[in-house]
Amino acid sequence: MSGKLKRVAVAQICSSANLSKNLKVVRELISKAIEGQADVVFFPEASDYISQNSLHSRSLSQKSPQFVQQVQSSIIDLVRKNSRNIDVSIGVHLPPTEQDLLVGNNRVRNVLLYINHEGEILQEYQKLHLFDVNVPNGPILMESKSVQPGKAIPDIIESPLGKLGSAICYDIRFPELSLKLRSMGAEILCFPSAFTTKTGEAHWELLGRARAVDTQCFVLMPGQDGVHDLSDPTWEMHHHVSAPSKSVKRESWGHSMVIDPWGKIIAQANPSTVEPQIIFADLNLESLQKIRNKMPLWNQRRDDLFH
């Protein structure tokens, strides 16, 4: 592979309410990403768990710090075993901090962690825009009931692929975040997601390609895929609730992809399988620079009018 190309891996999974099962899948896919010579592997939002409701999420989030530690250990272990470095971007939930609880905020934090090949967490980005919508003929989802919004635009990460800007799922609908990240130097944007099938079918690809063209960045879109197993017998027994009925079915759109700065899809997941999968793409930062030079949007922006 030419030194000018950087290989990225994008993982597609179907998280359940069982964190240890999800961890096993994550570990297997990190291993596959290393075998495929990737420099960084990106996992979707909520890779640790998908819950039945806000009460269930608060309970499961108590196990998330351990899940994160096990991911860190897995990275160190797999890097050593394969004698090849890899960084990992992974979406998880974290429980509220002590400070949150002091002010009566018991909602979880939806975060994207960037973990380097030594198992160190370099960034913890907390999702800014929460998905509170009543989709026509689709689900009513109120993320803000169980999740607290972030308050800070993330710093750009100097990753082995290039300068990386972090975002999560619903953030993709707010172009100002992507434009800000590009202004801060981003060459690559990631949108780890758990899109609903209704909104995914309508807008997933459209939004990814639009953000790529808006910002002249590579766009990475790791998605949750398929019908999630939300059963958690221990929790259900403890809270005297019945197993999740068909009415609380959660299904995610999948269709993970990598898009270049010209808006072209250069890699995408196989839609005919529900098995966890990894897609690879080689990012050419020289071609990104050519696109930016030929169409110098950032020199032509009317900053005198738009702030």
TrEMBL record:
Domain of life, source organism: Eukaryota
Gene3D superfamilies: Carbon-nitrogen hydrolase
Signal peptide: none
PROSITE patterns, alphabetized: CN_HYDROLASE (PS50263), UPF0012 (PS01227)
GO molecular function terms listed in the Swiss-Prot or TrEMBL record: hydrolase activity, acting on carbon-nitrogen (but not peptide) bonds, in linear amides
Compartments (UniProt record): Cytoplasm
All residue ranges annotated as the CN hydrolase domain in the record: 6-285
Transmembrane segment boundaries: none
Keywords assigned by UniProt, alphabetized: Cytoplasm, Hydrolase
GO CC terms of this entry: cytoplasm
Protein family membership: Belongs to the carbon-nitrogen hydrolase superfamily. NIT1/NIT2 family.
Name of this chain's protein: CN hydrolase domain-containing protein
Source organism per UniProt: Saccharomyces mikatae IFO 1815
Encoding gene per record: SMKI10G0900
